[in-house]
């Protein structure tokens, strides 16, 4: 059995998406988006990590986050901020939005999506009629949430700012996003669900295209490890057969490397030894099983490679700070209204 580790991780980290804003902008304009924690508090209570993306539907723009050079965006481009950084989208580099102390994000979070906004230097008209014919730029702003705990190797492997030019996107992305937003603006039944699924697909497509352009055997990080022949094979084996009693020697035989060579190469790419990675992934699998079904803790322990319920429970509490039963209760409690 073979498993695609990227799909496996994406399935396990509770990926959820929604398009929240359809923004018309008049020059000069600058729209600032706070970091993940502030966004979660304002828009998605209970979300562990929030990632923003912006699709340039009309005109052009600049994207910037602290410590990174500004990036020029053209019509049809998408820019993502996978690590949840505070960032600015503007009509020219170096612009910042007028400070805004209002609570409009809180006040509008339950409104039908997408929430329509007009920008001119700062927030101008939340709830403005759309599309604004006079707008020099129109930006679709979406948000995707995921879990970071107990183990998510993907987010740290992505750049802080991920720019995908229109030509680098899947041919379906722009038309589908345009159609999803258009349906929502017409308040068609089921449009909110369509927006959520499209947002998730946009994020997944962006990650796949970033992975595909990484040089094989070069760079570092979990995604670069997937591109390496031996490390990628090791990751696929650990994901496909996570419950096996793996040793470094056995894994090395499977991928054609000595114990020391596999350890060195795996750490170079992934940032941790193979057995440490396996332990983290087993915790992630356990968390997913606890949240998603009614299996006993003993059954989950066996399914993820632990000989006893007690051993799994101890490891899980070390990784998450919660016993398995408490983690399960937390995952099944009703979510706060968003």
Tell me what the structure shows.
This protein is an alpha+beta fold and 338 residues long. The protein has three domains: 5-213, Sandwich (Jelly Rolls), CATH 2.60.120.10; 222-272, Arc Repressor Mutant, subunit A, CATH 1.10.10; 276-332, Homeodomain-like (Arc Repressor Mutant, subunit A). It has helices at residues 5-12, 36-43, 104-108, 173-185, 191-213, 222-227, 229-240, 248-255, 259-270, 274-292, 297-303, 309-320, 324-332, and strands spanning 16-25, 30-33, 49-58, 61-65, 71-73, 78-81, 87-90, 115-120, 122-126, 137-146, 162-164. A seven-stranded mixed beta sheet has the order 9-8-1-10-3-6-11, sandwiched between helices. Helix 4 packs antiparallel against helix 5 (191-213) and helix 11 (297-303) crosses helix 12 (309-320).
């Amino acid at each position: 059995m073979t498993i695609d580790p990227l799909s496996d991780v994406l399935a396990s980290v509770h990926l959820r998406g929604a398009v929240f804003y359809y923004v018309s902008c008049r020059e000069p304009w600058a729209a600032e988006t706070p970091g993940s924690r502030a966004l979660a508090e304002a828009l998605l209570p209970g979300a562990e990590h929030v990632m923003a993306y912006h699709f340039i539907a009309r005109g052009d723009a600049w994207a910037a986050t602290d410590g990174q050079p500004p990036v020029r965006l053209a019509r049809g481009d998408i820019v993502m901020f996978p690590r949840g950084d505070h960032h600015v989208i503007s009509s020219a580099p170096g612009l910042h939005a007028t400070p805004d102390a209002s609570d409009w994000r809180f006040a509008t979070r339950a409104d039908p999506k997408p929430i329509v906004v007009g920008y001119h230097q700062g927030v101008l008209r939340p709830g403005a009629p759309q599309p604004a014919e006079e707008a020099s730029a129109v930006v679709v702003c979406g948000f995707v949430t995921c879990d970071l705990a107990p183990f998510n190797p993907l987010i740290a492997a992505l750049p802080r700012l991920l720019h995908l030019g229109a030509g680098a996107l899947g041919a379906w992305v722009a038309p589908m996003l345009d159609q999803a937003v258009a349906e929502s603006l017409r308040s068609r039944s089921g449009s909110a669900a369509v927006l959520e699924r499209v947002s998730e697909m946009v994020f997944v497509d962006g990650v796949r295209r970033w992975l595909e352009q990484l040089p094989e055997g070069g760079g570092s990080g979990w995604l670069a490890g997937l591109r390496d022949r031996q490390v990628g094979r090791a990751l696929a084996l650990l994901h496909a057969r996570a419950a096996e009693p793996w040793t470094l020697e056995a894994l090395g035989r499977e991928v054609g490397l000595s114990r020391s060579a596999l350890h060195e190469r795996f750490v170079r790419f992934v940032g941790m030894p193979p057995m440490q990675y396996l332990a983290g992934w087993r915790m992630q699998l356990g968390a997913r099983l606890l949240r998603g079904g009614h299996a006993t803790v003993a059954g989950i322990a066996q399914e993820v490679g632990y000989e006893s319920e007690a051993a799994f429970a101890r490891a899980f509490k070390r990784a998450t700070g919660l016993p398995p039963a408490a983690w399960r209760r937390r995952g099944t409690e009703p979510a706060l209204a968003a």
